[in-house]
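Supplementary Methods, section 5.1.

A reviewer requested that the exact input to the structure prediction be made available. We therefore reproduce it here, unchanged from the version used in the analyses.
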Amino acid sequence: MASPPGARVRWVVLQALCCWLGVFVGGVPMPKVHSKSPWRIAPVDPALTDSTLVIHNGDVIFLRHMQSKKIVDVHGVYLKARMNGHGTRQAFKIEKPETGAVCGNIYAFDRVYLTAHTGMRVGVDGEVVTAGNKFRGPRQELLLEVLNPTPGPLRHGAVVFLRAHTGKHIEIFGDVAKARFDKRGAAQAFVIEKPRSSY
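The structure derived from this sequence is encoded cell-by-cell as follows.
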C-alpha cells in the first residue's frame, strides 16, 4: 500500500512537533492500566510522571499482555506469555529503523524493531511470530498502534497493538504469540513497561 506524496514529510514534522510539546510543555503522561478490567484506565501515579518514563529509541522494555496479565518472554525462538516477572528472557530492546530520529523518542504509529535477549529480532512469517534472526527487514518491522494516543512520546504504561507487515496484529493465543487477525481487542493489546532501574 503506497502512501500519498509528502506523507512521510508530514509525519516527520508531526513527530518533531510532538517532541517539542513533550520537552517544552511537559507532555501528557500516558495512563496506566487498571487491574480490574483491560479497558479501564486509571490515572498515572503522580510520583511516576517525570520525563524518565518516556520510551526512548534503544530502551529495554517489557510487554505485558492485557488479557492474561502475563509478561511476554522468548522461549527458544517463540514468543510466549507465561510469567509475571521482569527478567532477562522477558526483556526486549525497542529500536526505530531510522538513525538520528526526532529526539530519539518512540511515538504512536512509529515503525519499530523488537530485539530479544538472544540478539534476535521479533518477526512475523504468515501467522507465526518468532525471534529467530537478526534481520531488519519488513518481516521484523512492527507498527505501534496506541490505545488513546496522547501528544508527545510513548510512556511507561501505554497500551499498544503491534501490527505486522501482513496487516495482522500480534496476539497471545493460549500462551503463544500469533499474528492471525486484523482486529484490536484484549488478546492483541500489550502494556509497555519500563524496568524501574532505567528510570
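The longest helix spans residues 7-24. These observations are discussed further in the main text.
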